[in-house]
């Protein structure tokens, strides 16, 4: 019984992390244009080191451990579009319009079926 509970808990945690990642990608419009993606990456470059530092300070306060200071993250000055494969771009654009296309096609199919049954 207990191993099943832990298996279920692991599954739920992994599902939550995956769902959160998908929501974050959708919310930040990472599947949009490369300019938007570049802006989000620059924002993350500014926010993440501060968040990691604050979390490490919190862990130090709670546990009494002394963590060494992390080195500064490297700076990258390149556009994602320059290094992104055109196949990836095509696939991501197809994935980003898939829900609306599925709705459109199902609506067309429903209309076709209604016409055929008259």
UniProtKB/TrEMBL annotation:
Its main location: mitochondrion. It is a single-pass membrane protein. GO terms for cellular component: MICOS complex; mitochondrial crista junction; nucleoplasm. It comes from the Eukaryota. GO terms for biological process: cristae formation. Pfam families: QIL1. It is found in: Mitochondrion inner membrane. Keywords: Membrane, Mitochondrion, Mitochondrion inner membrane, Transmembrane, Transmembrane helix. Transmembrane segments: none annotated. Component of the MICOS complex, a large protein complex of the mitochondrial inner membrane that plays crucial roles in the maintenance of crista junctions, inner membrane architecture, and formation of contact sites to the outer membrane. Component of the mitochondrial contact site and cristae organizing system (MICOS) complex. Belongs to the MICOS complex subunit Mic13 family. PANTHER family: MICOS COMPLEX SUBUNIT MIC13. This is MICOS complex subunit MIC13. The gene is MICOS13.
